[in-house]
Amino acid sequence: MAEAHQAVAFQFTVSPDGIDLQLSHEALRQIYLSGLHSWKKRFIRFKNGVMTGVYPGSPGGFMVVVVSYMSYNKYQQLDPSLGLIAKLGQHMPISQKIVGGVLVGTGLWVSIIMIMRSVLKSLLSWHGWMYTSHGSVAWSTRLWMVLVKVFSGRKPMLYSFQNSLPRLPVPSIKDTCKRYLESVRPLMEDEQYQRMEGLTKDFEKNLGPRLQWYLKLKSWWASNYVSDWWEEYIYLRGRGPIMVNSNYYAMDFLYVFPTSIQAARAGNAIHAIMLYRRKLDRAQIKPIYLLANKVPLCSAQWEPMFNTTRVPGVDTDILQHVNDSKHIAVYHKGRFFKVWMFYDGRLLLPREIEQQMARILADTTEPMPGEEKLAALTAGDRTPWANARETYFSRGKNKQSLDAIEKAAFCVTLDDTEQRFESDNPDQSLVSYAKSLLHGKCYDRWFDKSFNLIIYKNGTMGLNAEHSWADAPIVGHLWEHVLSMDPIKLGYTEAGHCKGEPHPNLPGPQKLSWDIPAECQEVIQSSLKVARTLADDVDSHIMPFSDFGKGLIKKCRTSPDAFIQIALQLAHYRDKKKFCLTYEASMTRLFREGRTETVRSCTSESCAFVRAMIKGETVRLLKQAAEKHQNMYRLAMIGEGIDRHLFCLYVVSKYLGEDSPFLKEVLSEPWRLSTSQTPLQQVELFDLVRHPEYVSAGGGFGPVADDGYGVSYIILGENLINFHISSKHSSPETDSHRFSGHIRQAMLDIKGLFQLEKKTQ
């Protein structure tokens, strides 16, 4: 099968008659087209940088301001330079009026931009709109929405609002301590709570204000006082495996199978991803908004989506990002291939990509020694991988091949197994599918890559994403684009192939070459052993909940997210006969470079409701618990959460060499129930009313605590909620299948409180 086509631009031979120079016109043509592509990309980036830098202004606005000023100045005979331009005119052949008009007009235009940007930042710092009752909008909110629209400019690109977003505020020590005590009260006995209250009050009075001063200083200087420390200390400094513990997955359609041809599915999916990257490079992706396209969210996390790899270090990892990459890395049956995505100065079409994937699938060469399980290094502990990378992959062919993987746009695995939802065996088929996406064989995904696209033998696909560079909604946005493009816009022939024709002269994929010594192979086996132990311990269960969805929940006049979170509290209590510290991820992208905040979903109100449900039925307590949850979610979104503030205070204390018993105890508390909602962000891409079968199964993650549960859920349309549950087999306290049963029953029981059937009669 195909090695890479070696296109040589020129060849020469030396003979007694002189030098015989032979030029390859095809190779020179490809070099010219490649250079032209690169320069076009640079120009587009420069233009987008200018457009983003002056937003909400525009070049058209610049011309209007300058011409208007010059027209006004023509009749007023003003000299805004106070004679400076006249003196320059004595030595240079310039028009005083034109130069003066351009300079002053430019200054006026810049001033207008800065004023609009400052006003918009002030407007976006107001969050009163979040407390508006459902179905009614106060006049103050309406006026605010009009002002935001006026100062937001026209036709924004992805990064247009970055300079107008407010900075994440630092909550007061008093408020954070108060909310912390409130969050742990239902989880502690009186004696334990009194002890914790004493530690909190001591911290609030003594060490806390000193740490807060440094944190305030950082918030004035840095774009975001949390995000850089969060990325470094929560993700990059972790020395344990990122497989299962950090990486997460996204699934394919649940009920639709567009084609059973593996290479064809890869062709459409890869092409769709590359189209998304092109839109990202050109900043053509629309900004994400809240509140009827009025409130923009931060877009910073989109930047490292492609061409990015987490590189291991002895003490800390780094994120390596290259500006451009024209190839992808493909793994199949133990071999790695480098596949160019451009030819003739253009992106390969789906049928051409299918052609390349088919060539790889047809390759019968054996893996080189150590190559088959090489990626296990990315699945095990980080320090052994860092040492092995420095020792065995820093020079020669190993470095070249590793660069081909790490500098690829993304990685693809042509998996040799079959995964799919099977209606006659739903539980086991979905468990197998989820575990395959989460960890696979522990050596067939490059877990360090920003994301891996996995295409199975029967045409099913999915993603595995590294977590440090961005949060799940960013990857979800890409995945929604791919799923909407694949079966409908790109489509397949009747035989199941990508549309179009193969390319007659397309150079084949390049098989990567390795020289892995026996010592390195021992390190690989050691990492694989660690990874397999971790993977085998994952107890996964997927539950498509179709009894009802957000349509019915809204009839209960309750937030769907609050309804589900309270159901999880009821399910957990029934499962373990106790309450636990609960983590729900909320975003802080209303602020520049914002990432996440924690909503502590186990509250006194939710506990009171659960106890009432065990004894009898009550709707009043449910309403109180739901309102409490919504309020906490709002506080998290506007930068008034608890956990990121306490985390940053702890980092400052370590820098100062101060020991805080309060912070140490707070940050060591385990999250035995970790939850996250996967939002469907581009609802316009899916018509779930006419085509309810085109729904993604969502995605999930591994358990956070050894004796706890991880729960991810996605609300799809009006009638479906998919739950992804994980735990560890090694814990005698947990059972993911059992917990899913409790979740289903809790959802049904809470719905039964509202007696909707009687109301419709």
UniProtKB/TrEMBL annotation:
Q: Which GO terms describe its molecular function?
A: carnitine O-palmitoyltransferase activity
Question: Pfam families this protein is in?
Answer: Carn_acyltransf, CPT_N
**Choline/carnitine acyltransferase domain segment(s):** 168-744
List the pathway annotation: Lipid metabolism; fatty acid beta-oxidation
| InterPro entries noted in UniProt | Carn_acyl_trans, CAT-like_dom_sf, Cho/carn_acyl_trans, Cho/carn_acyl_trans_2, CPT_N
One GO biological process this protein is involved in is: carnitine metabolic process
Q: What is its EC number?
A: 2.3.1.21
**Gene Ontology terms: cellular component:** mitochondrial outer membrane
Q: What class of enzyme is it?
A: transferase
Tell where it localizes: Mitochondrion outer membrane
**Which residues are the active-site ones?**
467
Q: Which residues form the Carnitine O-palmitoyltransferase N-terminal domain?
A: 1-47
The record's comment on protein family reads: Belongs to the carnitine/choline acetyltransferase family.
**Which UniProt keywords are given for this protein, alphabetically ordered?**
Acyltransferase, Fatty acid metabolism, Lipid metabolism, Membrane, Mitochondrion, Transferase, Transmembrane, Transmembrane helix, Transport
Q: Which residues cross the membrane?
A: 50-72, 98-120
Identify the domain of life: Eukaryota
Q: Show the SUPFAM superfamilies listed in the entry.
A: CoA-dependent acyltransferases
> Where do the coiled-coil regions begin and end?
none
Q: What name has this protein been given in UniProt?
A: carnitine O-palmitoyltransferase
Task: Give membrane topology per the record.
Answer: Multi-pass membrane protein
Q: Which reaction does it catalyse?
A: (R)-carnitine + hexadecanoyl-CoA = O-hexadecanoyl-(R)-carnitine + CoA
